[in-house]
Design a protein that fits this description.
globular, single chain, Glycerol-3-phosphate (1)-acyltransferase, alpha/beta, 16 helices, 2 domains, 382 residues
Length: 382
């Protein structure tokens, strides 16, 4: 296969970056967005900056790193990292991460890669996020590639095969990939890998020898955790309404609202942990197993490593004790931290219960606290 086989979903090449920058320079909306990220520069200076960019690497280090630093400075206390020293510059990885925020999980990972003098990865993103041409051009210039939404079984199979081929093409070309462990963000705090994702990985390559097929992708779990979940209120609201009504219908531009909320909301500390890569030694005992068994083993390994490396904050332990009505984990937090978390939750309760009605309070409280508490149980039982 060649790169042109993936023109419908792929990110840009270096040769296409000057044209993308020219699009931004001549687009008023893009320039206004750039102005918010680079407030100390004039529009003419921004145009000059964009016009000087000739490669993806330059775009990421000149624009994206600045954007991410703005987010960190304005909405976070700091970003902690673990395990980056285990990554090799000359090796491509299939990073499979828990998915807490629509954009930040992957964008801040890229900035951390730059900080650790490592190549950035390609990023999978759903076509539901492509609201306009500006977002499409920006995304493709930032090494994002499209994951097409499927409306029937035939489309799902075709799109999965195409995506699998492209991911393997990138890995074999020495380029790492980041993809979420499931379709959509974790809404309830329970990070679980979709078995269908692993099946998609296996659709390319040597399908008759599944263990070597999956091992050669260098599947590497990533655990991302936030002291304060940037979209906790929106997640809890969606989960409650879906549970109450049996369905949740997104409003127009709701995904973009989630993106902006994730960017703007206070997040406290964020931790990104690179987990051990799944190796042949991990899967060798299952080499003669059937396909479903091997896929389950890989998914379970991803979950286990994410749980083991997920960083728990005082808020997680406070929420667990609050839900259980105990003080089991009181040694992990102070009274001041407990009061602060309670004030944070009360603010969310007040805002959402005005919309949902007081009858929602018991269940909504459980859902919101669960986003923080469930990772504690997962880590205890991994």
């Amino acid at each position: 296969m060649v790169l042109e086989d993936f023109n419908d979903i792929r990110s840009y090449t270096d040769q296409e970056i000057p044209e993308a920058m020219e699009f931004f320079i001549n687009d008023e909306v893009s320039l206004e967005v750039a102005k918010t990220v680079i407030p100390d520069a004039s529009i003419e200076q921004i145009k000059g900056l964009l016009g000087s960019i000739k490669t993806i690497d330059e775009f990421q280090k000149t624009v994206m790193t600045r954007f991410v630093n703005w987010i960190i400075t304005n909405t976070m206390n700091r970003v902690d990292t673990q395990g980056f020293e285990t990554l090799k510059k000359d090796k491509a990885y299939l990073f499979t991460g828990n998915h807490r925020d629509i954009t930040l999980d992957a964008f801040i990972l890229q900035s951390c890669m730059v900080d650790h003098n490592l190549p950035t990865s390609n990023i999978a993103y759903g076509t539901n996020l492509i609201m306009n041409e500006q977002i499409d051009v920006f995304s493709r210039a930032n090494k994002l590639f499209r994951v097409e939404r499927s409306h029937n079984v035939r489309e799902l199979t075709q799109n999965s095969q195409h995506l699998s081929d492209y991911i393997r093409f990138l890995i074999q070309a020495g380029q790492s990939v980041w993809i979420a462990q499931r379709n959509g963000r974790t809404k309830d705090g329970n990070d679980k890998t979709d078995h269908g994702l692993i099946n998609m990985f296996s659709m390319s390559g040597d399908r008759k020898n599944l263990v070597p097929n999956l091992v050669e992708l260098n599947i590497t779990p990533i655990a991302t955790s936030y002291e304060y979940e940037p979209c906790a209120m929106m997640k809890a609201r969606e989960s409650y309404i879906k549970e109450r009504d049996g369905v949740y219908v997104k409003q127009p531009m709701e995904d973009m609202d989630s993106v902006m909320s994730g960017i703007k909301k206070k997040k406290g500390i964020m931790t990104i942990s690179i987990c051990p890569t799944i190796t042949y030694d991990d899967l060798k005992p299952y080499e003669n197993g059937d396909k479903h068994e091997i896929i389950k083993v890989v998914a379970d390994l991803i979950d286990q490593r994410i749980y083991e490396n997920y960083h728990l904050y005082p808020n997680n332990y406070i929420a667990h004790d609050w839900l259980s009505g105990t003080s089991t984990f009181k040694k992990y937090y102070t009274q001041e931290e407990k009061d602060s978390f309670k004030a944070y939750c009360d603010k969310i309760f007040s805002k959402l219960l005005n919309e949902l009605g007081n009858e929602a309070e018991p269940r909504f409280t459980e859902i919101l606290l669960g986003i923080y508490a469930i990772p504690v149980d997962n880590k205890l039982h991994c």
